[in-house]
Amino acid sequence: MSSTPIAGEGAAQRLDEVLQNWAVSWFDSGVLRALETTGVADERGQFRWLLRLAGDEKDFVTLWLTLRQRTVHIEAQVMPAPEERVEDVYRFLLAKNADLHELHLALGPEAAIYLVGRVPVGQLDADRLDEICGAALHYVDEIFPTAMSLGLGSLYRRRRTRPTA
User: Fold this and answer.
1) pLDDT along the chain (165 residues), means of 10
2) Contact criterion met (CB below 8 Å) for 53 and 65
3) Phi/psi at 33 (nearest 5 deg)?
4) What distances in angstroms separate CA 5 from CA 8, 68, 70, 119, 120, one per listed residue?
5) 140 and 52 in contact (C-beta within 8 Å)?
6) 58 in Cβ contact with 144 (< 8 Å)
7) Domains (ranges, CATH) in the chain?
8) Angle, helices 86-97/126-151, rounded to nearest 10 degrees
């Protein structure tokens, strides 16, 4: 039995207000590029938000937040399913998983690699959003190049940052 309270009437509106207020400073910094929601529940009664963050190794890191019965589910695709050196990719990801905080690596649809996590509905405030978005950006930047080089090496060429003048 979970001690986390069930999200009641108005939980989606409260979460949307938290997201809208939090987003102002992230938009100003240039890191948050989009915040979208349909504003209506899906066929399962869940509300979803999309946050598109500017990445370094990937152009964008897209986070999906889904309001569930007791939690907000967080997910971001790290990479598509590996096609080469699959065992090496999984070994690398399992080793990385031990060091992650707030989010963890998981297999998703079509064997793609995702960062996922859950936060109790009442605990997702601006500070937790900062932590989660910061962690997602950091982890993707750290994991993506090695995982892609191992798992899709014939297709992937690492982006080299250009020195600033």
Assistant:
1) 63 93 94 94 92 93 94 96 96 96 94 96 93 96 95 78 51
2) no
3) -105, -25
4) 8, 11, 6, 12, 8
5) no
6) yes
7) 11-151 (3.30.1460.10)
8) 150
